[in-house]
Automatic annotation (TrEMBL):
<dbReference type="InterPro" id="IPR006203">
    <property type="entry name" value="GHMP_knse_ATP-bd_CS"/>
</dbReference>
<dbReference type="Pfam" id="PF08544">
    <property type="entry name" value="GHMP_kinases_C"/>
</dbReference>
<dbReference type="InterPro" id="IPR000705">
    <property type="entry name" value="Galactokinase"/>
</dbReference>
<dbReference type="InterPro" id="IPR006204">
    <property type="entry name" value="GHMP_kinase_N_dom"/>
</dbReference>
<dbReference type="Pfam" id="PF00288">
    <property type="entry name" value="GHMP_kinases_N"/>
</dbReference>
<feature type="region of interest" description="Disordered">
    <location>
        <begin position="485"/>
        <end position="522"/>
    </location>
</feature>
<feature type="compositionally biased region" description="Polar residues">
    <location>
        <begin position="7"/>
        <end position="17"/>
    </location>
</feature>
<keyword id="KW-0479">Metal-binding</keyword>
<feature type="domain" description="GHMP kinase C-terminal">
    <location>
        <begin position="300"/>
        <end position="380"/>
    </location>
</feature>
<feature type="domain" description="GHMP kinase N-terminal">
    <location>
        <begin position="111"/>
        <end position="195"/>
    </location>
</feature>
<dbReference type="InterPro" id="IPR019539">
    <property type="entry name" value="GalKase_N"/>
</dbReference>
<protein>
    <recommendedName>
        <fullName>Galactokinase</fullName>
        <ecNumber>2.7.1.6</ecNumber>
    </recommendedName>
</protein>
<comment type="similarity">
    <text>Belongs to the GHMP kinase family. GalK subfamily.</text>
</comment>
<dbReference type="GO" id="GO:0005524">
    <property type="term" value="F:ATP binding"/>
</dbReference>
<keyword id="KW-0418">Kinase</keyword>
<dbReference type="GO" id="GO:0046872">
    <property type="term" value="F:metal ion binding"/>
</dbReference>
<keyword id="KW-0547">Nucleotide-binding</keyword>
Length: 522
């Protein structure tokens, strides 16, 4: 929602604080609590946006995905009401909605109403006063709507004293999106917002709904390149792609000699045997789904083995497939991926989310992350588009959103501000001092650990956000320095652009110049 250039509204603790302040400002600190009850501390629920490393448009075909959470979040502060109304304040839009259970609003309130409606089918979810604050940009392909649904769902259940297994809640939020908002999406976004763990990718089987956390490892960094071109699933060709996959599946069912529940059951051999029976466009859509599932498996295994080169290769191949076979990319996304692939330290990149705009994601050598971010950010306005930006998907250590999604008092007001003020004051000097000695001695490791563990600043911040304290940040600095002093598992190198370029007729820039053509045959 918020896209403040100066970053003043960004940062997850800030969203928690903003939601809490907005709740009190809109509805008063007592809400409509009956006088016999003491004023309840607000519940604050948080859910993250996501990028998808590999596995695009496979979810509604019962396929495989490999998403990870970004440290942009939706926070929802909530207090129960004595009736069944929802009063909802959207801090980012400066708007308030009042909803009765049967209301069917439009805009952002549609997501809140749809989640409440679906939850009430199985749970006696009461009314609530809610305030929403977010720094997940809308239309950027980072799944702001699923993050909103999950945070609202968690908040509503918590204030009603209910609980659900997290996968059930994710499914309820998915139904809210499909039935309430009209996007025929798969479960990727809601499962990502519900189940991604910090510093890990989530291997998600959309058929069995089994998940497995795959740690990113210390050597990996991830960048998000927002093209600045807004994507809107309800108005894009997204539902057309869903229809095309259904049509292809129907045809394959007619000609195949075995039962097919979904395109997940199609493999290369079956597709090759019956490609002629399909319209050419349908054959390309199926080829994307089949090969993308293979790439997700490859990327999962490679990530688990710490082979970031192979993960990067899978990402680049996924982008080609989404661009050429599935046709959901656009010139700005192609340019963002090309720019990333040419940048030193980048292992691979691809569009993420539904496509037709939004963001690209790049997997980067952790040590080169800052440099790669600066290089891409500098070149993006000219290469990608005037509003294009680049930022890390997650700081290390990542904010632990699950810790905030419990019924607990929020950080005392004013205290969380220290995240924004004290740490940045200390950190540049700390880094400077360490880098002076980093080449010569392991002493800096000891220094960093000692500094981190004695750091007084930690004491002021609420313990519940334990993964985002100054002490943790400084400890992670210590880890970073130690890594620099240790021989690397994966050699850091400049990768030639591995993306097969295709002159794009729709591109504003026209075909690639011979100089910028890829040098590495694939
Ligand atoms: C959108 C949808 C998801 C998924 C992706 C493409 O984000 O909401 O369900 O289909 O596009 O992978």
């Amino acid at each position: 929602m918020s896209r403040d250039a100066d970053g003043s509204n960004t940062g997850t603790p800030n969203q928690v604080e903003r939601a809490t302040v907005a709740l009190d400002a809109a509805f008063g600190p007592d809400g409509d609590a009956p006088s016999s009850r003491s004023t309840p501390a607000p519940t604050v629920a948080v859910a993250p946006g996501r990028v998808n490393l590999v596995g695009g448009h496979t979810d509604y075909n019962d396929g495989l995905c490999l998403p990870m959470a970004v440290d942009r979040h939706v926070a929802v502060a909530a207090r129960p009401r004595s009736d069944d109304r929802l009063r909802v304040r959207a801090a980012d839009f400066d708007e308030t909605a009042e909803l009765d259970p049967d209301d069917d609003p439009g805009g952002w309130a549609a997501y809140v109403a749809a989640v409440a409606r679906v939850l009430r089918e199985d749970d006696p979810v009461g009314g609530a006063d809610l305030a929403i604050a977010s720094d997940v940009p809308t239309g950027a392909g980072l799944s702001s709507s699923a993050a909103l649904e999950l945070a609202v769902g968690r908040a509503l259940l918590a204030v009603s004293g209910r609980d659900r297994p997290v996968a059930d809640l994710a499914l309820a939020c998915w139904r809210a999106e499909v039935e309430g908002v009209g996007v025929e999406c798969g479960i990727l976004d809601q499962f990502s917002a519900a189940l991604c763990e910090a510093d890990s990718a989530l291997f998600l089987d959309c058929r069995s709904r089994e998940t497995e956390s795959v740690p990113l490892g210390d050597d990996a960094g991830v960048l998000v390149i927002d093209t600045g071109v807004s994507h809107e699933l309800t108005e894009s060709g997204y539902n057309d792609r869903v229809r095309e996959c259904e049509a292809a599946l129907d045809r394959l069912r007619e000609v195949a000699d075995r039962g097919l529940d979904s395109l997940r059951d199609v493999d290369r051999a079956l597709l090759d045997a019956h490609a002629d029976a399909l319209e050419s466009v349908h054959s390309r859509r199926v080829r994307h789904v089949v090969t993308e599932n293979e790439r997700v498996r490859r990327a999962r295994d490679a990530l688990a083995a710490g082979d970031l080169d192979r993960v990067g290769d899978a990402m680049l191949a996924a982008h080609e497939s989404l661009r050429d076979d599935y046709e959901v990319s656009c010139p700005e996304l192609d340019a963002a991926v090309e720019l990333a692939a040419e940048t030193p330290g980048v292992y691979g990149a691809r569009m993420t989310g539904g496509g037709f705009g939004g963001s690209a994601v790049a997997l980067v050598d952790g040590d080169a992350l800052d440099r790669a971010e600066r290089a891409i950010r500098a070149a993006a306005p000219e290469r990608v588009g005037p509003d294009a930006t680049c930022s890390p998907a997650a700081r290390r250590p990542a904010f632990d959103w699950s810790a905030r999604s419990k019924r607990e008092p929020t950080a005392p007001r004013g205290v969380s501000g220290k995240i924004g003020t004290r740490v940045p004051c200390v950190l540049p000097w700390f880094r400077f001092g360490l880098r002076l000695v980093e080449q010569r001695s392991t002493l800096c490791c000891w220094l960093a650990e000692a500094y981190a563990s004695s750091n007084e600043a930690n004491r002021g911040f609420a313990g519940s956000t334990s993964r985002f304290t100054p002490r943790r940040i400084l400890s992670s600095e210590a880890r970073l320095i130690r890594r620099r002093l240790t021989p690397r598992r994966t050699a850091s190198r400049r990768r030639p652009c591995a993306l097969r370029r295709r002159p794009c007729p729709a591109s504003r820039r026209g075909p690639a110049s011979p100089e910028s053509r890829c040098t590495r045959p694939r």
